[in-house]
């Protein structure tokens, strides 16, 4: 593969990155070709030594999204990073997506429990308005107790969500390092 073919494939595979980022990467690979040609190598030898432009692009896109989620851990950035890391290979579909779904399900369940406990007095009052003959003070006091427990759960879920997000970002970075260079860098 010639230099132009390699760089065209690389740039086409990097289309999900911002144009300035894409240009920097293409310039770096142009320098690889310039240095290789100065050392007496052919363009084909250089492109073979660099590897597949599509795989290089997948690695760079995954790295970009993982670094971006480190800077700003928004939900959208986390999902982009997860999908980029999954795109590195079929193996990652199981290794990344499985734990991600499990953790998201646990976090959502915790927030739902906290929310349900917090609004329980409102449900008791609504029930009393609709069916006043079945009102019991025990239900009201129990729901107030659940509200306090719900507030504690919500506080715990806030910190658990932050910890899980941070831990999963580290896990994504570890996974990218393993896929890129094997266990030597991990």
Overview of the structural elements:
The chain contains 8 helices and no strands. Helix 1 runs antiparallel to helix 2, helix 4 packs antiparallel against helix 5 and helix 5 packs across helix 8. It is rod-shaped and about 90 Å long. The model has no long low-confidence stretch (mean pLDDT 85).
Write the layout of secondary structure elements.
Blueprint lengths: L2 H11 L5 H20 L4 H8 L2 H19 L3 H12 L3 H29 L1 H11 L6 H45 L5
Helix pairs in contact: 1-2, 1-4, 4-5, 4-8, 5-8, 6-8, 7-8
Number of helices: 8
Report the β-strand fraction as a percent range.
Answer: under 5%
Distance between the termini: 32 Å
Q: Which oligomeric form is depicted? A: single chain
Share of helix, binned: over 70%
What is the element string, with H for helices and E for strands? HHHHHHHH
Arithmetic mean of pLDDT: 85
**In terms of per-residue confidence, which ranges show pLDDT below 50 for 5 or more consecutive residues?**
none
Radius of gyration: 26 Å
The biggest beta sheet reads:
none
* Annotation, overall tally of beta strands: 0
Shape: rod-shaped
Structural class: mainly alpha
């Amino acid at each position: 593969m010639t230099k132009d073919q390699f760089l065209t494939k690389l740039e086409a595979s990097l289309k999900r990155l911002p144009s300035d980022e894409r240009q920097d990467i293409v310039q770096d690979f142009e320098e690889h070709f310039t240095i290789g040609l100065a050392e007496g190598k052919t363009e084909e030898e250089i492109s073979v030594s660099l590897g597949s432009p599509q795989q290089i692009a997948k690695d760079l896109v995954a790295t970009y999204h993982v670094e971006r989620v480190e800077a700003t851990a928004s939900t959208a950035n986390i999902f982009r990073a997860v999908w980029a890391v999954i795109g590195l290979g079929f193996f990652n579909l199981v290794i990344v997506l499985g734990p991600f779904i499990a953790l998201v399900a646990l976090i959502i369940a915790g927030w739902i429990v906290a929310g349900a406990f917090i609004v329980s007095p409102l449900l008791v009052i609504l029930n009393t308005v609709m069916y006043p003959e079945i009102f019991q003070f025990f239900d009201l006091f129990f729901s107030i107790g659940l509200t306090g427990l719900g507030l504690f759960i919500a506080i715990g879920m806030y910190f658990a969500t932050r910890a899980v997000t941070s831990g999963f970002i580290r896990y994504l970075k570890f996974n990218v390092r393993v896929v890129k260079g094997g266990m030597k860098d991990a």
